[in-house]
Amino acid sequence: MSVSRRRFLAAGATAAGAAALAPGLRLVDLATARSPEEAASSLNRWGLLIDADKCADGCRACVDACHTENGVSGHDRPETDPQWIRTVSVSDPQTGHSQQLPVMCQHCEEPPCVDVCPTGASFRRDDGIVLVDKHICIGCRYCMMACPYKARSFIHEQVTDQKPDMPRGKGTVESCTLCVHRVDRGDTQTACAEACAKEGHRAILFGDLNDADSEISRELKAHGGIQLRADLHLNTGVRYRGLS
Predict the structure, then answer these.
(1) Which residues, other chains included, contact 130 with Cβ-Cβ below 8 Å and sequence gap of 6+?
(2) Range scoring the smallest mean pLDDT among 83-92, 104-113, 219-228
(3) C-alpha dihedral, 29 to 128 to 72 to 203, nearest 10°
(4) What is the DSSP letter of 156?
(5) Domain 3-42+59-187, CATH among 3.40.50.300, 3.30.70.20, 2.60.40.10, 3.40.630.30
(6) Which of 23, 29, 144, 202 would you call most buried, defined as having the most Cβ atoms within 10 angstroms of its Cβ?
(7) 74 phi and psi, to 5 degrees?
(8) Main-chain dihedrals φ then ψ at residue 98, nearest 5 degrees
(9) Cβ distance 237 to 209 under 8 Å?
(10) What gap in Å lies between CA 7 and CA 186, rounded to an integer?
């Protein structure tokens, strides 16, 4: 796509987005910083480690916490309601062994959603967090088709009761942000990891993959972890353990 066409689409999307999003909500700035003096840096690589062996069957604590934290609500229509995180059941047909695990945006180092976005609304921060700027998203849904994890949702209906830190709007695409607003204020937990720990499962661990001394890095070094669809070579920020 030519630069001029990209700019044209972005300009049109900005006008449309202004009407769709509630006034007063701040933009997800491309240079979002943890503080005015400390911008998102490639020195960090935020990610999750999910232990399927610790994920309790039927538990939805992570899903509920994520959606409450980010003001995500639906209309009891599973086929169209947004899902920033969902639980998936997998089973081995030979042994009958089944497991439940949460799946969300995998925050790829080479995100296909960013590659196909015509306006630049889908972008990856220097610290590895993949986001959507709702003010320039035109709702084309190319990113949804490109995502191999089915991790993005399209907003079909009017949004109400939005959170100040997480603008949302009808006609745009959204997905897990790794609780970017928490990261930027220096918190050490995402909403999903916090809720999982409160339930006593500790199946979700959040941290800095670039910090060798972080708990997530130590766990991965000691016990390993795998990527979903590692064959795609996306170098995901979300790793899994305990999958058969």
Answers:
(1) 105, 107, 108, 111, 113, 114, 122, 123, 124, 175
(2) 83-92
(3) -150
(4) -
(5) 3.30.70.20
(6) 144
(7) -130, -165
(8) -125, 150
(9) yes
(10) 34
What is the value of pTM for the model shown? 0.85
193-227 confidence digits (pLDDT tens):
999 999 999 999 999 999 999 999 999 999 999 99
| 44 φ, ψ (degrees, to nearest 5) | -105, 150
Nearest to 144 by CA among 171, 101, 104, 173: 173
pLDDT at 34: 56
Tokens of 184: 């930027």
Beta bridge partners of 86: 103
Q: Which residues, listed in sequence order, are joined to residue 88 by a DSSP beta bridge?
A: 101
Q: Which pair of tokens denotes residue 5? A: 């066409």
Burial of 193 (0-12, 13-18, 19+ CB in 10 A): buried
The DSSP annotation for 211-224 comes to -TTSHHHHHHHHH-
Question: Residue 27 gets which letter from DSSP?
Answer: P
The residues, any chain, with a CB within 8 Å of residue 108's CB and separated by 6 or more, are 124, 130, 234, 235, 236, 237
Residues 21-78 pLDDT 10s: 544 444 455 445 555 556 788 899 999 999 999 999 999 999 999 999 999 987 788 7
Q: Is 15 exposed, middle or buried (0-12, 13-18, 19+ CB in 10 A)?
A: exposed
Give me the half-sphere count of Cα atoms (radius 13 Å) on the Cβ side of residue 238: 26
